[in-house]
Amino acid sequence: MSGHDQLVLCLCELTRLLWKLLLPLVFLCVLLVAVVVLLVVGVRLWLQTNRNTRRGRDGRPTVAFFHPYCNAGGGGERVLWCAIRALQNRYADINFVVYTGDQDVTSQQILDGARRRFNIVLPRPVQFVFLQHRLLVEPSLFPHFTLLGQSVGSIFLGWEALTEFVPDLYIDTMGYAFTLPLFRFLGGCSVGSYVHYPTISTDMLSVVRERNPRFNNDDYISNNLFLSAFKVVYYCLFALLYGAAGSCSDLVMVNSSWTLDHILALWRAPNRTSIVYPPCDVSAFLDIPLHEDGDRKCHSIVSIGQFRPEKDHRLQIKAFRKLMEKRGEGPGGREALRLVLIGGCRNQEDRDRVLMLRGLCQELGVADRVEFKLNIPFEELKRELGEATIGLHTMWNEHFGIGVVECMAAGKVILAHKSGGPKLDIVVPFEGGQTGFLASDEDSYAEAMNRILTLPPANRLEIRRNGRQSVGRFSDQEFEACFLAAMEPLMGTLER
After folding, report:
1. What is the tens place of the pLDDT at every residue in 148-181?
2. pLDDT one-digit tens code per residue, 112-121
């Protein structure tokens, strides 16, 4: 037998073997699929039984908000409490639940924090479901592949929430999109989401492609062609998964034009997506008087924002140092300037970041002119804004910028980053007049601050007036009206 005939014979035997194995493999696959389907159906029936039992006991439907950091003091938490307040005022026959991971406080302490920080009092109590495993979504747990790790962690945290309490309507207000299919397909709930910031965006992809170092793209990656290429593939695959999870939402609300563009590109649900600008307590700042400040001996520059890496407080400190170099030591110079960094600290990682920022101030020789105010009450925040000349914001591609709006409502000259929500929605001309300034790096920030301080007081006053008048569209009342209108179709599906 020739070598060719032996090869043919071997191929024939291999084909017969594969054919014999095919049917068992197909049977095994069908069996596995059937087991998975039965498991999913069984879990769904079990969860729905729990919900029906609870409905029979309560006699009314329940809307649940997923907000593991509800005791933090940021703009996302303000959205949460304003949303619940609006729904409670409109729907008296519905219960409300908040899933939270804040184990170190009581329910009453959380509500007291909302009143103290945001001046928000709910018309009636809400139920809190305290989650034990919030650590699963902490970025510190995933030093590498953080997006994927936190997303997988959010699925397990969402499972804990779902097994603890099965609602009729589930609203994610923190951006954990991978919990949406869990509640929709296993819990049988209607699901909605309020998106502050897409977990991944085309801007993030462009940063990696261009090998540009940022807080989410370390130098050792941006300097390595292979690692950059691998990260691009990782981001692209993650974007597909994120889009699939987000598309499960029955209702999508986004907080700005910038976020809308990215969510439409990723989730592809234009008929279910709308902009609902976040609530900014502009009315609380309107009693701060507007008058010329030419006789002011000291000019304070105030920044409002949680102490997270993306807020880029380092840029603020470095730009402030350059401003002092420009102003010199004479009148209106170093001793007449003060930088006040106001923000919330969520955890030890944020507190460690503040320590590093204090160290940077010492290193740059500006520690005596920079103050840190952490988790301060609303009254103190308002007092600091009343004494300030400039409101400072430095986050690249900030999704919206509640702190920017608050500074403008308080009558401060705002200086924000030339990107994202501040550029597209907030620091825009009002009736043809200038409402603030934009910058993008240390030099442009220092130059803009110096320009603001050298403007004639009358010109500064005109910009401040324009800014205050322009932010009426971001009031609590506007948010509540738009939020309730967006939620109405979903609320209408609840069985009373």
Report:
1. 999 999 999 999 999 999 999 999 999 999 999 9
2. 999 988 889 9
Question: Over the stretch 411-458, which tens digit does the pLDDT of each residue have?
Answer: 999 999 999 999 999 999 999 999 999 999 999 999 999 999 999 999
**Interhelix angle 402-409/75-90, nearest 10 degrees:** 80
